[in-house]
Amino acid sequence: MDNIFVDLELVKQEIFGSSEEVKKLESNEDLVSLKTGQGQRVNRVLVMGDAGSGKSTMAANIAYKWANGLKDDPPQSPLSKFKLVFLISMHEIPKDSNVSLVDLIFQLILSEDSEVSKEGLKSYITSHAKDVLLLIDGMDEDSSGILKARSNEIIKILHNRKLRSCCVILTTRQHRISDLGEHLRHYTQVKLNGFSLENIEMYIMMFFREDTDKYDTLIQKLTQEPHILGLAAIPALLLMICLLWEDQCSLPHTKTQLYKNTLNHMWKRYKSKESPVDEESYSEEMTAEMQSLLCTLGKVALNGIEDEYEQVVFSEEDFGSEVFNLGCQVGLITRERLRSKCGVKASVTFLHKSLQDFCAGMYLAKLLDSRQSEFDKFLKKLYQIKDNKSESYLLVPNVLDFCCGIQPSMLDTLLKLTLGLSHRVFGQGACLDISIHLSHIFESQLTYAELVSLFSCVDNLKLTVSYRDAPYLLYLLKLSESENSHEGFILTKLLVFQITMGYEQWLPSLFKFTPNLVTLVIKLDKRFKSITTSQLKEFYLAISKLEEMKDLMLLNLNALIQFNITYLLDILTKNKKIDLKELFLHRFQFDNRVMANFLTNCSSLTHLFLSGTQTRLQPGLSIKDVIKAIPTLRKLESLVIAGYKIGGTIKYLKSVVPQLLSLSLHQGCEFNDQNLRELFTILNRAHKLTSLDLSGNIISPSSVKSLVECLQQIPSLEELSLMKTGLNDEAVCVLAEGLKEMKSPLHKLCLYKNAYSQIGRAALAGLPVEDDIEDMNEARSQFMRDIL
User: Fold this and answer.
1) What is the pLDDT of residues 2-55, one digit of tens each?
2) Residue 732 to residues 336, 679, 681, 709, 756: CA-CA distances in angstroms?
3) Which helix (H) or strand (E) element contains residue 301?
4) How far, in Å, are 205, 488, 552 from residue 433 at the CA level?
5) Do residues 53 and 173 make contact, with C-beta atoms less than 8 angstroms apart?
């Protein structure tokens, strides 16, 4: 741990107002120091990460740091506040649905001759829960079926019904978080992104501390090959990259080839024990014996996938004695002995979960060629489709990645499967979301002609990616640039493109090959900061050339960096061929007059969302010219303004309000009582309005009376949000009485973070009120899902 462990990139994910915020944690120790927005200690943390991203290593490192920190005087680490730390791996839990936490600790951690008694340990944990840290690793690797039980002690702890003051850190692959169901609301979610660029370099430096030449050449290689650098963010793959570079000073292009080469390296080392291996005659291709071994192991792995659970612990009998012994000798599987109430039991696991997926992928690829019916059975297990709905996900996406890398024709099968689902749900010609297939396309390494042929049956595409998908997009871009003719290529069919990114220098080039793009969503994360003015102009210029674009959404998630989009607005105004219908700008700066001029040229705009940079330290800016331009938008249906001072400019919205279906004027608008009365007078004419949101603006009791009179004149209103508006019992009683007299009852009333008591709650009886943090978080999450 001390010699090579490098901190991973952890990002805390939260929803604030109308946008998602991400906060980077400095180290894994910060997981035990998280606080809620109200300053309360967080006791349930869910760490999500992809296969090989370092979840188990991170959990082990936390326990290791705590054990070593016991020697420090005075204590140095936030972990020192815990008197006991337990690390439990889900795959080690025996198949006993009634097992207790103390039973598990005795079975998996404490020795048989321990002086600690079960009664004493249980009493201490119960009475000193706040001094206990429980690390539960691998919720997605539950082989005991304990998560399916409803009333055992472990489930009660995970669901926050027992030991609530105990700090619980739970790790899982992201697609398994739904197993927590409604109890997910108790958890602060943290995404494990693997290694940052700085940590990749640090890891390589520590690995090659005795050979600086190989360190220098590998860093240079990764700098020149960004698609490989993207793979290096995954700790398990970076280890393989270092091992291969140490042995061969060369690297493959894909994850599949990386595993093949690493496994060949392990096979070569195993064979060298029997007799010396001739280096010159040694081939990079797998021998028939090695392939047979991997496929046999893969059959066991694939058979272990049942419903929504993937078996990770096996017995020797599952493999057969010959395969088991050979697998252990090569180092592909390991055996360990676990103690349970029934005695000592041997269990078998793969060297790493991702290796299990690779073997399963090999076997699935073999079935595709030989046994179609069995292949179809396994594919239905891997690709979960929910009752003919559009919701679908890959139970073990790595398996299909590897299968496509081994057998590229698998890609055609997967594409037809999702295309058929899309047509059943949305009809012929629907926009096909290929986001889950992007990594499959990359792993297959198909040629330009093969991809064109593969996508010939698809008319419209949708793609949602993060910066971790950069290697896959670069692959498509390089294929595009390597051909003289791009007609019919996959990128030309892209209609909806959403990307979370830092500044990617290749992105403007990518836009050249997406001439038919209709919807563009760009979320700039915390890495988007080191960018020159010329690069920013190139980026904006590329966007302005998307002449078919109708929907543009730009979200800046980096609160510390402000970006000015005046140049983009100016060139969009000059390009008369672009006719936007939706514009969404979050935390961007712009020239007031340039924005106003831009809006007057957007005759088709139906949705406008402007969220400013208003904070406690930086007040909102005035956008008077912009407000005056909004009435020129004759087709506008939805208007959202947040973080801008508009209190004295309400009168300019008078002519546009009657056509609106949705109006949101959020925190930072700086309304006084006079402004509010003026707004409510204007809203008397909002006969089409179905949703009104005034959250974050203080509404006095006297203004509430005017609000009620206004609401009673809006016949179509269904949703009203007044979060954090300073409503007390008096104001709430007036509001409740008026709402109950409305001709058409509300469907939703959101009043979170208002200072009213049981008196106000009693007055609200019978109204569809949402007034606690769980309702608010769900509402905010749903709002972001609706937008994106």
Assistant:
1) 555 556 666 665 543 333 445 677 788 888 888 876 677 889 998 888 766 778
2) 63, 20, 21, 14, 7
3) helix 288-303
4) 40, 18, 18
5) no
Residue 330, classed as helix, strand or coil, is: helix
Beta strands at 309-310 and 305-306: parallel, antiparallel or unpaired: antiparallel
Q: What are the φ and ψ backbone dihedral angles of 492, each rounded to 5 degrees?
A: -70, -15
State residue 539 phi and psi, 5-degree precision.
-60, -50
Report which residue type is found at 129: A
List of residues 6+ apart from 312 with CB closer than 8 A: 91, 138, 141, 143, 304, 349, 350, 353, 356
Rounded CA separation 637/620 (Å): 24
Whether the Cβ atoms of residue 755 and residue 731 lie closer than 8 Å to each other? no
Query: Which two three-digit tokens encode residue 758?
Result: 């049981």
- Supply the pTM of this predicted model: 0.72
Average confidence score pLDDT of the chain? 81
The per-residue b/e assignment along 700-713, b for 16 or more CB within 10 angstroms, e otherwise, is bbebbbbbbebbee
Output the 3-class SS for 9-34.
Answer: CEEEEEEECCEEEEEEECCHHHHHCC
**Which tokens belong to 435?**
């986001």
- Is the bond preceding residue 768 a cis peptide, omega within 30 degrees? no
The backbone torsions φ and ψ at residue 401, rounded to the nearest 5 degrees and listed phi first, read -55, -50
Radius of gyration of the chain (CA): 29
3-state secondary structure of 140: helix
Backbone conformation region of residue 167, classed left if phi is above 0, alpha if psi is from -120 to 50, else beta: beta
Determine contact, residues 230/224, Cβ cutoff 8 Å. no
Instruction: Please write the tens of the pLDDT for every residue from 413-422.
Output: 888 777 766 5
Distance CA(277)–CA(270), nearest Å, equals 10
Please give the Cα distance from 193 to 47 (Å, whole number).
10
**Three-state secondary structure string covering 34-76:** CECCCCCECCEEEEECCCCCCHHHHHHHHHHHHHHHCCCCCCC
Amino acid (1-letter code) at residue 777: N
User: At residue 232, does pLDDT exceed 70?
Assistant: yes
Within the chain, how many helices (H) and strands (E) appear? 29, 30
